[in-house]
Amino acid sequence: MATDLIPTTSTATHGFGSYLRKVAAIIGKDVATELRTKEMISAMFVFSLLIIFIFNFAFDLRAENMQTLAPGVLWVAIAFAGMLGLSRSFVLERDRGVLDGLLLAPVDRSAIYLGKMIGNVLFISLVEIIILPFFIILFNQPLGTLPFLAGVVFLGSLAFASVGTLFSAMAVHTRARDVLLPIMLFPVIIPAMLAAVRLTAAILDNIPFDEVSQWLALLVAFDVIFIAASFMLFEFVVEE
User: In whole angstroms, what separates CA 225 from the centre of its chain?
Assistant: First the structure.
C-alpha cells in the first residue's frame, strides 16, 4: 500500500539517532586522539598565552589606555591559536591515510563535517576557558565580565570553527595547506571577528546592550548561515 512507503516516526527517529551516534563517534575519535597526544591543545594554549603576555607588556609601555586595546588583543590570540587547531583538523587523517577510509565508510558526509566542527569548537573553547582568566588579570578587567565574555567568545569561536573546518578540508589536499588556510579563512571571517570585537569592547566598557544589539544579531546570523552553508557544501569539498 502507499502508506507503507511513508517512513514512520520511529524509523525517522532511529535514523536521526544513528546519525547522531556517527557524529559522536567522530567527535570521540578526535578527543581520544588529542588526549593521547596533547599536541593541538598544548600548542594552542602556549601560543595564545604568549600573544596575550607579549601584547600586555608592549602596550603597558606604549599605550596609556589599555582598555581600548584589550578586545583586539583577546581576539588576535583566539584567532591565531584557533588557526593552529584548524590547520591540524584533517592533517592526521590525511597523513595516516585515515581520511580516505573515513570517506569510504557508510557515513553521511555532513556527519563528518559536524563531528569535526564540534570537535574543533571543543578544543578552541577549552583553550579559551584557560586563557580568559589570564586575560582578565593581565588587562585589569573585573571578574564580573567573565560570563558575558565567555558567551561572546563561544559565538565567535563557533563562527571561526564552522568556516575553518570547511576550508581545512579544502586545504589539506594541497602542499601549501598551512599558508592557504589563513588566506582563505580570514577574509570570510572578518564580519564575525568585527562583531565579536565590538561586543567584547561593549562588555569591557559597560556599554548598554541596546547600542550593540545589532552586532550580536550579526554574529548569530553569521553562525547560522555559515554552519548551514558549510554543512551542505562539505560533501562537494571532500569529493573534489
Answer: 15
pLDDT tens-digit readout, 84-135: 888 777 777 776 666 666 666 667 778 888 988 999 999 999 998 889 988 8
* 158 touches 121 (CB < 8 A): yes
In single-letter form, the type of residue at position 231 comes to: F
Q: What's the pTM? A: 0.84
| Closest by CA position to 78, among listed 172, 2, 154, 162 | 154
With beta carbons less than 8 A apart as the criterion, state whether 69 and 63 touch: yes
CA pair distance 115, 201, nearest whole angstrom:
32
Task: Judge whether 135 lies within some domain.
Answer: yes
Cβ atoms of residues 123 and 44 within 8 Å: yes
> In total, how many domains does the chain have?
1
Euclidean distance between CA atoms 91 and 104, whole angstroms: 17
For residues 64 and 18, what is the distance between their CA atoms, to the nearest angstrom?
Answer: 57
Inside any domain, residue 1: no
Domain coverage including residue 218: 8-239
